[in-house]
Amino acid sequence: MRRRPVGVVTSALVVAALVAACDTGSSSDGAASSTPPASSSSEALANPAAEVALALPDNAVGSAVDQLDGLVESLMESTEIPGMAVAVVHGGDTVYAKGFGVTEVGTDGAVDADTVFPLASMSKPIGSTVIAKLVTDDVISWDTPVVANLPGFALADPWVTDNVTIADMYTHRSGLPEHAGDKLEDMGYDRQQVLDRLRYIPLDPFRITYHYTNFGLTAAAESAARKADSDWATLSENSIYEPLGMTHTSSRFSDFEGEQNRVVGHVKVDDEWVTTPAQRDPDAQSPAGGVSSSVNDLSHWMRMLLADGEYDGTQVVAADALLPAVTPQIASSPAKTPDERAGFYGHGFNVGVTEAGRTQFSHSGAFAMGAGTTFLAIPSADVAIVALSNAAPIGAVEALTGEFADLVQFGEIRNDWRDLYGQAFAPYSAPTGDLVGAEQPQNPAPAQPPSTYVGTYRNDVYGPAEIRDEDGKLVLAMGPDGITTHELRHWDGNTYTFTLRNENAELGSISKVSFEPEASRMVIEYYDDDSSDGVFTKAE
Fold first, then answer.
1. Measured distance CA(41)–CA(427) in Å, rounded
2. pTM for this one?
3. What digits encode the pLDDT tens for the residues 141-176?
4. CA 201/CA 290 separation, integer angstroms
């Protein structure tokens, strides 16, 4: 079952051919060359890498901001998303910051610009600026090996273990498969336990393969924090949140829970938004998805970003430390035809060039348990926008920022972003499993006696899996101390099933559990992914 989990989604990967871009005039390290071509005349030629194809319309940002109320309201009406908040920065100021809708369905708690939302993977670019601050202060460099400050860290290849850097992990080019470790987190393993198990996961080619990986990035952040003699949440607070005056921003789930003005996540059941069955606790992968914040706070961060690391006259992050993060380091979505633009990734940022020939960087975040977030910046227009929602991802916030970017650059909405993003996100809301929608055989072959299957089975990546007989029913117990349990239902012969619902499995997902005739091995369909073949071998 090789399906990209929806836990975190990046906009460049969703519609890369439409919104990302080719790397024009870049040097070998992915940063745009600042050296103009030589000229025989005394007058220096313009740098073509800094040119744009189209001039901005008159009052480009002001006119776009004037239309935001109507865009948000129509979007919320069409999607029925419970709540959203939006902010825009331009010219060093916050020029728009508003909340819409409610913090929780069935209540009158209004969303405002100070309402705190979980950011999901929008945490990555924010965490990248934390790393850039450490680079600024000469604590580490982007090229510091992860293992240098993370004792015991290992990947499947010893050479990669020794050489994989913080930059490699923040660029998702370590070779770890997509979303490696996410299902371990769902099973109840903590951060250290997940990181310890990365060594068992097979790698793809190092530094030439892009696979979006939360726990690879988390390993890099953990390494950096240890070098700084801090935990990640405290480091983020001291390095970025406090200097920027982000008083309602945190990388701890307990702080989010302690906020009085915060949202509750929502998911769709029978085409209706309802409160989430479980508010997502992302502490295990906090550097990758654990930030919570408001649009007012995030406007401070975006102002710093647009000012090349400066905030209110203070250089919080050095421009040269920030530059690698917001410039292309690897192709995240190679073009499929000569007519398409490729998508690129920096260190925690999606990076591309728009239809108007302007550099753009962005990142989205998504929790299947009820969060959809995004930000988008166009430095040459000196503008950035952030949109946060308290609903499972359907592409709504990305559609809004896409419309806003069109208005800024062209004075009109050029693309049907709502339909494009709606189609792109739709597959992530579907349940998974080969037996979804299938009918059980009317005369299934009988199973063997329960005692045949009972025992402990092992898988290097996912750990022990215990089959228990509880009052004649088989139960699958996994995770640390078997805290995650599934009741097995007989399907046919030596095949059983269980249903599941978590951050990486939508409501209605079904997994097969297939035992060999002697029950010496079992294959769990849900764990047959790029991290493992799903085979669990019975202990002797």
1. 57
2. 0.92
3. 999 999 999 999 999 999 999 999 999 999 999 999
4. 24
